[in-house]
Amino acid sequence: MSIKVFDRTFEALSKSLDMRTEKQAVIASNIANADTPGYQAKQLDFEGALAKALTMDEGAVQDVRAEIYNQINDVVREDGNTVDRESEMSALSENQLLYNAAADLVRKKLAMLKYSISDGGGH
């Protein structure tokens, strides 16, 4: 019998942290290029791919790759730039909150694992 230390939930949380970090970089790039003529705002969407991977075989979560594509919005300035700075700042805050929540869950899962190894093992 094999003991699986890191389950699918842990794998998903780990991958979520990676993708949220990448998403933060994409959003930051959009904000940094808000005044660049012709810049097309980018978007990274991994939630759908991650959800699909969770229904597949084990290990599929680690293979999830986020797609980066041009953001579709109603903002096109005269210079061709499509960045909505207010929307990007909001997305930045939301992504950071979700990253922090996932990081907290990882810490809690690791704390439970530590407890089960040290104190909960039955003396």
Provide a quick synopsis of the model.
With 123 residues, this protein is mainly alpha-helical. Helices cover 54% and strands 7% of the residues. It has three helices and two strands, in the order αβαβα.
What does this structure look like?
The chain is mainly alpha-helical and 123 residues long. The protein is built from three helices and two strands. The chain has helices at 8-32, 47-54, 85-118, and strands at 42-45, 67-70. The two termini are 23 Å apart.
What is the strand and helix layout of this fold?
Elements: H1 8-32, E1 42-45, H2 47-54, E2 67-70, H3 85-118
Antiparallel strand pairs: 1-2
Helix pairs in contact: 1-3
Termini, distance in Å? 23 Å
Largest sheet: 2 strands, antiparallel
Q: Please, what is the average pLDDT?
A: 89
What is the SS-derived class? mainly alpha
> What is the count of structural domains?
1
Q: How would you describe this structure in keywords?
A:
123 residues, mainly alpha, two-stranded antiparallel ribbon, 2 strands, 54% helix, elongated
